[in-house]
């Protein structure tokens, strides 16, 4: 390891870093690099890294920012492939920071160097005795990883944790993250055996796809808790639609975390309490909480906080309530007041009773020290009651001196303890949100609705024609045509260019009619008086046409607006007015919004948001997170609405935004929904020419399930097999497939002896990120039963240009051409994604695989690291030509 800029000056960054590495217990050699010093801390100093005779693995750079290009070039010449830049100064405008950043990235790419920083705190691995940072002291060793974009907050958290004896497996300050970012670090931590939970402090996301990809991969295996700064910062004010005005950046970030299976917190205390409760292995299946207390006040405080967090404190089941009333001679409610004289037996029996209640998902037990209470004895009884329950029990013993012994008991148990009732309830909410978000993580929606094919080509022609005219919004007619192309029901609308035309249209539609100004430049017609409703005769039609034109020309002086649309007034007495929309977030791309609609939509502000693509589960969750969802049920005055029709509209909007990167904003307002179905009464589109590769869904933060790769193949003997990308629900089939492989086949595939996949391996193999990896399964159906007979997969390497493959075929299906068919399809898929090269390692005595590689024209060489392994590789560009 080399420290560039190491110095003996007391105030220097280089001295602190060099001292930290040298005193942390790191066993390898540490070299000081400083042209102006002969010795640093009694060790020889080198003028540059190239002057060091021995190999160097890592360079830590603490010199001024203007020296960094030269330093990085020297690191490249030395063969150093990992550089951590602690130097700051990149944010000063007069130093052309952007240009220097581009230069550093170019140098790093040329020499195959990975960069951490610049302007970062550095890296700590306490378990490995490595302190490669500017921190004052080494952190305690533990099983939590902390990744932060803010060095100041990172140092503050470490100081806060030191007093509380909280330990870490990894601490990393990302700084400006020119190269290594959240996605890269999460990839490592997902499989790091030293890490049980991951804490992130986020200020900004540089690459949404990489962030979501790494976050989803890590959250599938271990809890990820995220704290974000800047929650109240507004998005760009240049929004044209209602949806754009309603959706803020924090809404979108919340939706992104939910889809990734992570948990959001808002304070440092919550960061660690969430990690504590999730790392204990506690899981819940809902948000229904029972609260036990020996005083009414703490119980009320806990209940208030639970309701504020969206938790439910439900009535207890009848059997539970009757049993508790035998313990407490008075009516029992939730929260359960066990009275001030409650002893260990009463607490234990009440807890056990509530844990058996089907309507309860977890318990928060509170205790206030009274003259007759026994805090430690009650704690022991509660621990015994919780010992055999799969439902979580959380505790909060209030006070200090009298409850210290009880807190020590909790400290060494699986029952998490918190100092206040609010903190305990917040911890339970983290469990509930984790459960919900993990369900969202498992959803892998396809890009297209299967119920009715969409007219994508027709929709694109409408948009491209408008863009060619220099327009960035669609007229009402164009907007409704676009919705129709995706199967969304719309009110029949006809456009008129004169009062006479309007009269003819009204007569053909039938009275009463609605008339609206028609101009792509007017997004909100009602705001300018551009809407007339319930027009019942010919004279009123002529007058309305004139009034609408005058109103539009007054609102947009100088513009020639002479078109109106007419539609028959829809009569839906029990219809609910809703809004479905799309907004564009500058980080995460398109976002789908749902909520209460109508003219007061921005005043009511009842909405929820989700990242596309959607499926039925996600669409239903989107609906249920709004207040208006409670009014969609039957309430005596109106029948329940057709929820399937609403879900179908949301799915089709998801299809639309997935396939049309041109769409920046969309309003369907109002969408009228009743028991007979859904009807889009009005719509508005804001459009823009796409910049990303739309075929790869580059405009979306989450890659949809690649339905286009689903197909059938015919083997040499005529057998038909299905080949498709793997899905999370294939976990059972994948486990059975690996279990049924012969020991030899298992060893050839995994290069180790195993009987079956661990839960972590199964998650990694079936819940994949289709943007950077692919797993194609071969399936054969016989007698109505589908069997997995093979799988081929690739994973993108860190260089972003090559991938590593793996292949396994069921023993009974070998020598039938399944392996070749799968590999050819896999290579074709990788080449279509722009991957340049495919490679892998094959055991030297795996003759069948090596023979297949020869037939596929792979280059085969003996590995330099292991003579028992052959490294095989092939250029995918050559295979294309």
Characterize the structure shown.
By secondary structure, this protein is an alpha/beta fold. The chain folds into five domains: 119 residues, 3-Layer(aba) Sandwich (Rossmann fold), CATH 3.40.50.720; 158 residues, Rossmann fold (3-Layer(aba) Sandwich); 176 residues, ATP-grasp fold, B domain (D-amino Acid Aminotransferase, Chain A, domain 1, 2-Layer Sandwich), CATH 3.30.470; 69 residues, ATP-grasp fold, A domain (Dna Ligase, domain 1, 2-Layer Sandwich); 174 residues, Aminopeptidase (3-Layer(aba) Sandwich). It is 36% helix and 22% strand. It contains 28 helices and 36 strands.
The radius of gyration is 32 Å
Q: What about the largest sheet?
A: 8 strands, mixed
Distance between the termini: 44 Å
How many domains? The number is 5
CATH homologous superfamily placement of the largest domain: ATP-grasp fold, B domain
- The fraction of residues assigned to DSSP E strands is 15-25%
CATH architecture type of the largest domain: 2-Layer Sandwich
Q: Unreliable runs, pLDDT <50, ≥5 residues?
A: 234-239
The outline comes out as: globular
Quaternary structure type: single chain
User: In what order do the strands lie side by side in the largest sheet?
Assistant: 29-30-31-32-33-34-36-35
- Specify the structural class: alpha/beta
Q: In total, how many beta strands?
A: 36
